[in-house]
UniProtKB/TrEMBL annotation:
<dbReference type="GO" id="GO:0016887">
    <property type="term" value="F:ATP hydrolysis activity"/>
</dbReference>
<dbReference type="InterPro" id="IPR017871">
    <property type="entry name" value="ABC_transporter-like_CS"/>
</dbReference>
<dbReference type="Pfam" id="PF00005">
    <property type="entry name" value="ABC_tran"/>
</dbReference>
<dbReference type="GO" id="GO:0005524">
    <property type="term" value="F:ATP binding"/>
</dbReference>
<dbReference type="InterPro" id="IPR015854">
    <property type="entry name" value="ABC_transpr_LolD-like"/>
</dbReference>
<keyword id="KW-0067">ATP-binding</keyword>
<dbReference type="InterPro" id="IPR003439">
    <property type="entry name" value="ABC_transporter-like_ATP-bd"/>
</dbReference>
<keyword id="KW-0547">Nucleotide-binding</keyword>
<dbReference type="GO" id="GO:0005886">
    <property type="term" value="C:plasma membrane"/>
</dbReference>
<feature type="domain" description="ABC transporter">
    <location>
        <begin position="35"/>
        <end position="275"/>
    </location>
</feature>
<protein>
    <submittedName>
        <fullName>Phosphonate transport system ATP-binding protein</fullName>
    </submittedName>
</protein>
<dbReference type="InterPro" id="IPR003593">
    <property type="entry name" value="AAA+_ATPase"/>
</dbReference>
<dbReference type="GO" id="GO:0022857">
    <property type="term" value="F:transmembrane transporter activity"/>
</dbReference>
<dbReference type="InterPro" id="IPR027417">
    <property type="entry name" value="P-loop_NTPase"/>
</dbReference>
Length: 283
């Protein structure tokens, strides 16, 4: 690790807590809906995988996307991030409008971030360097110069927020699965997003750690005024984490409502070959 990282890291370590940050505020007169899909269809490899989806995502909400494997949940997440262009229909974002031009897509991506299932980290780099990669679009990609001091301090603060300040200089290869997932979360937070997307973020950790990480997501949504859309296969965890569940089946929205309405009957419509267990039985 290059010595240029030492000063901001030592100062953060001496403080023992992350630098105080102002609570984000919703713009005056802003819409309660952050982004909206209007009859969106998505294709991959020439195949139509999502058909005519209409969906409003409200600010400050936690939406869980559930459904059988291969149904298109990750494709929907990529569409929400502007990485996958709809074959038809429109995606609109409050304050930006329809995502139809390179400029509008860039503006949306600047305020979005994704946490990946398999972390998508570089094992030989430190936790701090991996978090800095979340800011790669803030400087020239071929720059040989050290990261600007302000960005390094921003990355340190993100690691502190997820409880990994002490591991900032440790290679990711030496971290546990849970610690790696926290690095992935810090890399997303360092972008200071409005929209946080998470693709099966608990798939590689044990149930107890998944519960703790879910609690971290809820805290971050509350404290940072984030909007979270998360793909989950753990249905009980989706019920506890989210305030809204959207279920996909046959390329369409088959369920959309609060967790209390996602009962055995609704689950059976999404997973006909895997009916819900009887009350008291684990899933």
């Amino acid at each position: 690790m290059n010595g240029v990282y030492q000063l901001p890291l030592e100062r953060a370590l001496a403080g023992s807590t992350a630098p105080e940050r102002a609570a984000p505020a919703t713009a005056a007169g802003g819409s309660p809906v952050l982004l909206s899909l209007d009859r969106v269809s998505v294709e991959r490899g020439g195949n139509r995988i999502l058909e005519g989806l209409s969906l409003d995502i409200r600010r400050g909400s936690i939406t869980a996307l559930v459904g059988p494997s291969g149904i298109g949940k990750s494709s929907l997440l990529a569409t929400l991030n502007g990485l996958l262009r709809p074959a038809s229909g429109t995606l609109s974002v409050d304050g930006i409008g329809r995502l139809q031009t390179p400029a509008s897509l860039l503006a949306h991506r600047r305020h979005s971030a994704t946490v990946f299932q398999e972390h998508a980290l570089i094992a030989r780099l430190s936790a701090l360097d991996n978090v800095l990669l979340g800011l790669a679009d803030r400087r020239h990609p071929l720059s040989p110069l050290p990261w600007p001091r302000a960005l390094r301090e921003q990355a340190v603060a993100a690691l502190a927020e997820v409880g990994l300040l002490a591991k900032a200089l440790s290679p990711v290869s030496r971290l546990s699965g849970g610690e790696r997932q926290r690095v992935g979360i810090a890399r997303a937070l360092v972008r200071e997003p409005r929209l946080l997307l998470a693709d099966e973020p608990f798939a590689s950790v044990d149930p107890a750690l998944a519960e703790r990480l879910a609690g971290e997501f809820q805290r971050l949504v509350r404290e940072r005024a984030l909007t979270l859309v998360v793909v989950l296969h753990q249905l009980d965890l989706a019920r506890r984490l989210a305030d809204r569940i959207v279920g996909l089946a046959d390329g369409r929205i088959a369920f959309d409502g609060p967790p209390a309405r996602f009962d055995a009957q609704a689950q059976a419509r999404l997973f006909p070959l895997h009916p819900a267990p009887a009350p008291g039985q684990p899933q």
